[in-house]
Amino acid sequence: MKVFVDGIVFGRQGFGGISRVWAEYLTALPTFGVEVEVVLPIVHRNQFLRRSLGAGRSTKIRRDWFSKPARLFDFLAVRSAILKACYLPRDAEVFHSSYYTTVYGANLTKLVTVYDMIPEHLSGVQQDLQSRRFLARKYRAIQNADAVVVISETVREDLWRFMPSTREKRTYVVPLGVSHKVFSAKGDLDAIAHRYSLPITKERYFLIVGRRGGYKNFKLVRQLVRTYPGYEEFAFVCVGGEQRGQTDIREEDLSSRARFYFIDYVEDGELAILYRNARALINPSRFEGFSLPLLEAMTCECPIVCSDIPAHREIGGDAVMFFDPLSAASLHATLTDCLTGERQVALARGRERASQFSWEVSVAELVRVYRQQV
Questions:
Q1: 91 and 135 inside one domain
Q2: Are the C-beta atoms of residues 60 and 52 closer than 8 Å to each other?
Q3: pLDDT of residue 246
Q4: Do 73 and 46 fall into the same domain?
């Protein structure tokens, strides 16, 4: 079976959940007997791409000269014409878009992965022209697909809610995974603290992973440290996402009591050490389609305090502690329970829960979808 992947997402993200997913897929698909050809941006800043290139040696790579500037090449019809004229192999049986592209008129099975319907949840918020264009492109790519892959039951329910016509389309749930080998490894926290100038010690800091602006709801953590005393004893280590000047974090909001530290990006092995030694992972997001940080934290035996939303319920089950994402009082009460409760019970539940997810299982399920569609 030959699958052609439009790897456009690697040109749209420096790092992030979607490009991590595709780095894992491109590495693993050939080991399942799938012949993969992928078009990748000639210019990119993606931290995960070199991993997939290094490990997926049997993957044939085409270099994409037409991904930048996005204002010219992000139109769906333009992208389709470029893919068909320049890159799409004649013998490809499946086209799989990494990020809401498609090909029109091609004689092959077309798949698109839907990661979330968060923009639809936020539709009451005034959207700029770029956001409206993205949603239009997303809808057209889904409509032109022969089948849709979603990463959770939560996303499937949201897809059917916001695009009722997709109930008639073949939709497959392919949950994401975690690298147990990488995130089960142990290491020296002191070395990481020294490398990133973090004055932290074991279990004396909370960890926040990923973007923090908008629906990611970091403002709730700001409200927490402004309102409730006692958090001066802990550091808040924020990995990934925006810098302080790029989000709604203001120096005066961080409170003189709380200590916040921001790191752009760390390797997975370093992130595993930060998870393993944290008092807890805090995830205050109001909406998610999945949550890779929850899986990673559970694998690293890190307690989790997260917002009570459908995706977190689906992924975390009874292995995490929930709070109301609209209430700093609820977050404070849950953190208090985390600090005073039985840590080992949460860790055991997390290990059991995380064992149900892996990239091997995820890729095997994706390959099953491919074979059903051909």
A1: yes
A2: no
A3: 43
A4: yes
